[in-house]
DNA sequence: GCAAAAGTGTTTATATTACACCCATGG
DNA sequence: CCATGGGTGTAATATAAACACTTTTGC
């Protein structure tokens, strides 16, 4: 229910301790066989000089998701057009009192899965923005360590039963690249032939690219190219060998 | 990132349009083979007289989850102790500008799965509180129709790969009751023998109750009793016949 | 006895797993 | 020609689905 604020009956917006709302992003990508996270170096207190997830305050006329896209474009130099098309997913909201020393700040966290992008340039409030390997990340500002860990867990689980993995790939990709996404996020090796059959047996997961141009990931035989299909769910799911879920 | 609010550098908490934060709950139960939702009738404008999800404002020293438990206890007459033990799960946050006509209100929505409880008594801001069959619910206040639909979808998906279904059951339950949870939420009939094997084959899903007392759900042969086990994930998952996922 | 639900067994289909093997390319 | 990754085939195993049958209760 959404009745009037406590201690107030006449909707006096300023009569109670205000909340600030931020949108923070865990932007993940697979680069050189390792999971990477987009981080910014904070330019001001608190936590000046520390690494943090990109994000910022939600403006009065924005939804949290709009704010997330805007902040991402501002802080990384992505074009607004690219940011508008990104796969963004709401992760959860962090509302513990005291998570920001200045005032009551509630953060709506998002997860973004992106293909390997060019190195970002800093901008906005961020002193600099960089991709860092997930394993090397420690001691982020605020409760961002926890947010990042939650994002990683969620992504690992969603790969099992959704077609999300294609979001890590460029528009056209080989099945080897797609498999590498799973292997990187799950940290296991998958059987190549079985992976291929599984993916191709799922209607709408990937669609072969017509023109028989082929491309190689480096060495070896050139592979057929695919695009992401229209399906979003995976049935039956692709379970990881030593499975866990959310 | 969480730098200073826009248009402000000195952390003047009152210099920008304030947000209010609410916690709203989709409390679901299975009753007489149908999914039911706990709703309250609004006692004041806006939407006075309309049905809404229980919930209310997050207080300055609370997290959203604490607020959700407190509001649930207040509005339904559940003991604070019961509310403290409920299975509560954050669903998502709704932040569209304009979702509340009075001011900028952001809602953190939770889903609660509860066993068949006694009819609630109204309290707090609510004129009355009632269980209503999910299928009959329409035209809730604010964007609560959407929140409720999201909650239902999430619960249906989570039954597949988590042990959540036991949250709908009382402390001791029969496998028939557990199966009815699945059948009700998914709207399909499940094969009894196969369901039984599947549940018993999952370590930690249910634990048999020692004393061989047995109980019947109504007619038929008395069934063995079980308690919820310590497992939270289901591996491999229990897929619904005509599957979908989140 | 009959209906209803529990519980056991069995058969068949489908999915997963673990390999062996050939193909095309770069160096 | 050999290392590397793409792609095909196949047999062994595990899981899921369908259904027949016995048991125990209330009425």
Automatic annotation (TrEMBL), chains A, B:
Q: What family is this protein classified in?
A: Belongs to the Nudix hydrolase family.
Question: Record keywords: Magnesium included?
Answer: no
Nudix hydrolase domain residues are 20-154
Q: Which UniProt keywords apply?
A: Hydrolase
Q: Which InterPro entries match?
A: Nudix_hydrolase, NUDIX_hydrolase-like_dom_sf, NUDIX_hydrolase_CS, NUDIX_hydrolase_dom, WH-like_DNA-bd_sf, WH_DNA-bd_sf, WHD_NrtR
Please identify the protein, giving its name as recorded.
NUDIX domain-containing protein
Read off the PROSITE patterns from this record: NUDIX (PS51462), NUDIX_BOX (PS00893)
| Coiled-coil residue windows | none
In terms of superkingdom, the source organism counts as Bacteria
């Amino acid at each position: 229910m959404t009745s009037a604020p406590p201690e107030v009956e006449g909707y006096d917006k300023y009569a109670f301790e205000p909340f600030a709302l931020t949108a923070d992003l865990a932007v993940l990508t697979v680069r050189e066989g390792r999971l990477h996270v987009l981080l910014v170096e904070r330019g001001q207190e608190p936590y000046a000089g520390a690494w943090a997830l990109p994000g910022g305050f939600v403006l009065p006329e924005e939804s949290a998701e709009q704010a997330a896209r805007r902040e991402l474009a501002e802080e990384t130099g992505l074009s607004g057009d690219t940011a508008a098309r990104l796969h963004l997913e709401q992760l959860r909201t962090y509302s513990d009192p005291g998570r920001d020393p200045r005032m009551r700040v509630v953060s709506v966290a998002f997860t973004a899965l992106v293909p390997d992008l060019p190195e970002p340039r800093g901008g906005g409030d961020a002193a600099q923005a960089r991709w860092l390997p997930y394993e090397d990340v420690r001691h982020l500002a605020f409760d961002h360590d926890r947010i990042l860990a939650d994002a990683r867990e969620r992504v690992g689980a969603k790969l099992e039963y959704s077609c999300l993995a294609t979001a890590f790939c460029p528009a056209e990709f080989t099945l080897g690249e797609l498999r590498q996404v799973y292997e990187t996020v799950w940290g296991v090796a998958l059987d190549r032939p079985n992976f291929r059959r599984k993916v191709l047996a799922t209607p709408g997961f990937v669609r072969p690219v017509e023109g028989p141009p082929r491309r190689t990931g480096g060495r070896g035989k050139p592979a057929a190219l695919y695009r992401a299909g229209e399906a979003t769910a995976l049935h039956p799911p692709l379970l990881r060998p030593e499975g866990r879920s959310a």
